[in-house]
Write a structure and sequence with these properties.
This protein is α/β, with parallel strands linked by helices. It has 9 helices and 8 strands. Helix 3 packs across helix 4 and helix 8 crosses helix 9.
Length: 249
């Protein structure tokens, strides 16, 4: 996750899903942002610029590139969440796009997620992975449901050995297993791989999760596609005692 993604259309789907799962399961949510800093190449890209669905009906509406109908359809999914994210983006624009007004802290302080949510916001880079992992496990040890928000999602099987776990844009099956073995259920963000069909990627990721997590049944892992903006998905991995809970909204 990066601060510049706050409020984009992918964020809307993310928080809506987490709020729904938390309310349905009554599990205490913990968020590991997998926070990273953008490269110069990323800063020049369009990533994180898909927030114009929030401009409808505001003084910035003419800057938006989506129709009022499109914005309204999203708003109707969760009006309260829409309004909270809209305030963040409008504040940011009012302040000349000052990054302090569009950052993870605004999500943590803005009552976007359930009030009992615990956030682990330590930045991840190529040199602090082990410390980042251990501190995260300790910080979120009392939470029953953990959300991981890596930029790219789950690393391909075997890549941990290849790059010594140094990619801050991925979460590794080895790390996912550490949390799962603590008895925690998990939600993991997965971005599309532009070189392969996304459904094929998701099948491989699920197969690798089953292989690496040990004693786990197929019905304990749910994969949900989110089709607003860039292709993305979420893996929901439930402990066996909770596997009967299936998000349907």
């Amino acid at each position: 996750m990066q601060d510049r993604y706050v409020g984009d259309v992918g964020d809307f789907g993310k928080y809506g899903l987490l709020d729904f799962i938390s309310s349905e399961t009554k599990l205490k949510l913990g968020v590991n942002w997998c926070l990273t800093s953008p490269t110069q190449k990323e800063i020049k890209s369009d990533d994180g610029k898909f927030y114009d669905y929030l401009l409808s009906g505001t003084k910035y509406e003419t800057e938006g590139k989506v129709s009022k109908k499109y914005a309204q359809r999203i708003k109707e999914c969760d009006e309260q969440l829409y309004n909270k994210l809209q305030k963040i983006i409008i504040d940011w624009l009012d302040q000349g796009k000052n990054p302090e007004y569009r950052c993870m802290m605004r999500i943590e302080d803005g009552k976007i997620l359930p009030t009992r949510t615990i956030f682990y916001s330590r930045s991840l880079n190529k040199t602090n992975r082990k410390e980042w992992l251990n501190n995260g496990i300790q910080s979120l040890s009392e939470n029953e449901l953990i959300f991981f928000d890596p930029d790219n999602g789950i690393a391909d099987d075997g890549i941990y050995v290849k790059d010594e776990g140094k990619s801050p844009k991925h979460i590794y099956c080895k790390e996912i297993r550490d949390y799962f073995e603590n008895g925690q259920s998990l939600v993991i963000y997965q971005h599309a791989n532009r070189t392969r069909k996304f459904n094929e990627v998701l099948k491989d990721k699920k197969d690798n999760l089953i292989k690496n997590l040990g004693k786990i049944n197929d019905n304990q892992i749910i994969c949900l596609r989110y089709k607003r903006g860039s292709a993305r998905a979420f893996f929901i991995i439930m402990q066996e005692k909770q596997s009967g809970i299936k998000p349907s909204k």
